[in-house]
Specification:
The complex is a heterodimer of chains A (263) and B (336). Chain A has 2 domains: 155 residues, no CATH class; 58 residues. Helix content of chain A is 65%, strand content 5%. Chain A has 11 helices and 2 strands; from the N terminus they run H-H-H-H-H-H-E-E-H-H-H-H-H. In chain A, helix 2 packs parallel to helix 11 and helix 3 packs antiparallel against helix 11. With 336 residues, chain B is mostly helical. Chain B folds into 2 domains: 252 residues, Arp2/3 complex 21 kDa subunit ARPC3, CATH 1.10.1760; 55 residues. The radius of gyration of chain B is 24 Å and the shape is globular. Classes of the chains: A mainly alpha (263), B mainly alpha (336). The interface between A and B is large, with 110 and 113 residues.
Chain lengths: 263, 336
């Protein structure tokens, strides 16, 4: 497995790709906070936020529908919010019987449900775009500039660096289990659910020991290269004038979207 | 990707600003403690150890086993990580895992990440370690049994907290979300318990030193036993109460005035109706002040852009020596 097998970065030379990672991370977070602040049923503001998203998509040269295609991941969670359809007080729109209960959809409930879905859908797309136009190590470095404690960002950077190594390890373990799970045609191999859980647990324990010993080796290797608790980088991440202008412009636009939603 | 999203990873948009902020506050304070504690205990070694351990939790979630009807169980890892690494390190490791799941895979939101870390990283570690720490000097069977119960309870605690946050945000109805979340996670928790117990017994067999007297799993203070016990007890007492008598919980929240802040779903500046400023004029003034602040930030950013534009116009350094000096000072500046 290649070291960046998990990265969602899409190589392009667009305007967004060249922006400082700090700007991208900051604007994404402000955009998501702004979405959460918009009141229910602020349709015009939702459209404004959506146009902001489309514009960002266009600037990234990934195509207008790029983030839309990948945004389906948040959909299953919508099930959790579906109860709000019936629980908000308001004018009943329609009602139906299911099993023994009578469900009544109210207008306020529908308004809130749709608003929650739109907020979530817009926010997840911006987060998808962020990792599509920013290399993950750059993003982590940007978080450090934005005052996330260095310990956390370094742990995350290590996680990212060794994730593909341990994933390879997991695939080896899974392949080994597969190759020892022969069965006669029509019969299932192995024991019951408990037995299978135990095997999975043993594999997790095995993976833990391998990772633990690997971390020891890594630490010794780092010590031998002069590691003293600090990590250095040659990637300076300097803010250019344009980066400040873009941040200012994005904040102004998001604020206008907020105003539209409130007035 | 390889892991199946569980209903514990809340996406953005499902929690109100107020609830997200409260969860972030709790998470940040706890993580601050965790960072200073692990710094003292592990020093410079903590970064490679915890980084690889975080990758381990992430990778271990890919080890699945078929349960029934095409579904499969897998590990969440909070209890296991805190038992083998100690509670503070376990919390940091789980935080890194949840942060990467949200940042890289959009499994869980960014604004609600504080809540996700609280539910899946902090509470699970406290319960998992606290209960295990209470029996750390007992026989192997007792230890493993308690670890299993702790793993199951940690999943239930995460589910209960998630349900409560969704309800306080006005996203779900309490009468449905609590039984649904607890019911599903009672099963998921069983898988978690079995895998945790099997993994621990495997480690006890092959590397008993990692779980012995001098290991991190025996070093945590007695306070963890109390903390873990109290949270576990709260889950055990609150779960049946919440699923059988959610109206009672509703009343408590009403009396405490939770709903006015939470269900508006738009936080402290809801419709400019700042609590003490109800009249239209005062609201307009507040909005105006907010506008001035935002305009100020925008102006500041533009100003900094202009400033660095001027700074960039400095004559290029031609002398080799000064260029080397420049590079050196840059490297020193980048030291983070």
């Amino acid at each position: 497995m290649h070291f960046d097998a998990f990265d969602r970065y899409h190589e392009k030379a667009s305007f967004l790709h060249r922006l400082d990672p700090r700007v991208k991370a900051l604007v994404t977070v402000i955009y998501i906070v702004s979405n959460a602040l918009l009141p229910d049923g602020a349709w015009l503001a939702f459209v404004g936020a959506w146009i902001f998203l489309i514009a960002a998509n266009l600037l990234s040269q990934l195509g207008t529908g790029y983030t839309f295609k990948r945004s389906i991941i948040a959909l299953p969670f919508a099930l959790i919010a579906i109860t709000v359809l019936f629980s908000m007080p308001g004018k009943p729109l329609s009602s139906f019987f299911f099993l023994a209960w009578n469900f009544t959809i109210t207008d306020m409930g529908l308004l809130r449900f749709v608003s929650i879905l739109i907020r979530s859908w817009l926010s997840v797309q911006m987060a998808i775009l962020l990792v599509a136009v920013t290399r993950f190590p750059d993003l982590i470095h940007a978080l450090e500039h934005l005052r996330v404690p260095a310990i956390l960002t370094t742990i995350i950077a290590f996680l990212y660096r060794y994730l593909f190594v341990l994933t390879d390890e997991v695939f080896r373990l899974l392949r080994a289990r597969e190759s020892r799970s022969a069965a006669e045609a029509g019969n299932r191999s192995g024991g019951g659910v408990l037995w299978r859980a135990k095997v999975a647990g043993n594999m997790a324990g095995q993976l833990f020991l391998r990772s633990y010993e690997r971390s020891d080796r890594i630490y010794n290797a780092m010590l031998s290269r002069g590691y003293s608790g600090h990590l250095y980088t040659l990637n300076p991440h300097e803010m250019k004038p344009g980066d400040y202008y873009v941040t200012a412009f994005a904040i102004a636009v998001i604020f206008i979207v907020q105003l539209i939603g409130r007035l | 990707m390889h892991f199946s999203p569980t209903p514990l990873h809340i996406p953005d948009g499902f929690l109100s600003i107020a609830i997200s902020a409260v969860c972030w506050a709790i998470t940040i304070v706890t993580l601050g403690f965790a960072i200073s504690k692990t710094n003292k205990a592990l020093g410079e070694k903590q970064i490679p150890l915890m980084g690889v351990m975080a990758a381990f939790v992430f990778a271990a979630q890919m080890i699945n086993f078929p349960v029934a009807g095409g579904t499969s169980g897998h590990l969440l890892g909070g209890a296991l990580a805190s038992i083998v690494l100690g509670p503070w390190a376990g919390m940091l490791v789980m935080t890194a895992v949840i942060a990467v799941q949200a940042l890289l895979f959009q499994d869980g939101g960014l604004l609600v990440m504080g809540a996700n870390i609280l539910n899946m990283g902090l509470v699970t570690a406290a319960i998992g370690y606290g209960l295990y720490r209470g029996v750390v000097s007992q026989s192997k069977t007792v230890k493993l049994g308690v670890a299993g119960v702790a793993a199951w309870l940690s999943v239930m605690a995460g589910a209960l907290l998630t349900a409560l946050q969704l309800w306080l945000s006005g996203t779900s109805q309490l009468t449905i979300v609590i039984p649904a979340m607890l019911g599903v996670h009672a099963l998921i928790g069983l898988g978690e318990a079995f895998i945790t117990v099997a993994a621990l017994s495997f480690i006890l067999q092959t590397r008993p030193d990692l779980l012995g007297e001098d290991s991190e799993s025996a070093k945590g203070g007695r306070g963890w036993v109390v903390a873990g016990g109290v949270i576990a007890l709260a889950v055990v007492l609150l779960s049946p109460l919440a699923s059988t008598d959610p109206d009672g919980l509703n009343h408590v929240a009403m009396d405490l005035g939770f709903f006015q802040t939470a269900q508006s779903g738009v936080g402290p500046l809801a419709g400019y109706a700042v609590p003490f400023l109800n009249s239209a004029i005062a609201s307009k003034i507040a909005a105006g002040i907010l506008g001035v602040i935002v305009a100020g930030i925008v102006a500041l950013l533009v100003g900094r852009g202009l400033k660095s534009q001027i700074a960039n116009r400095k004559p290029p350094v031609s002398n080799l020596q000064s260029s080397i000096a420049n590079r050196k000072s840059k490297i020193v500046n980048q030291k983070s």
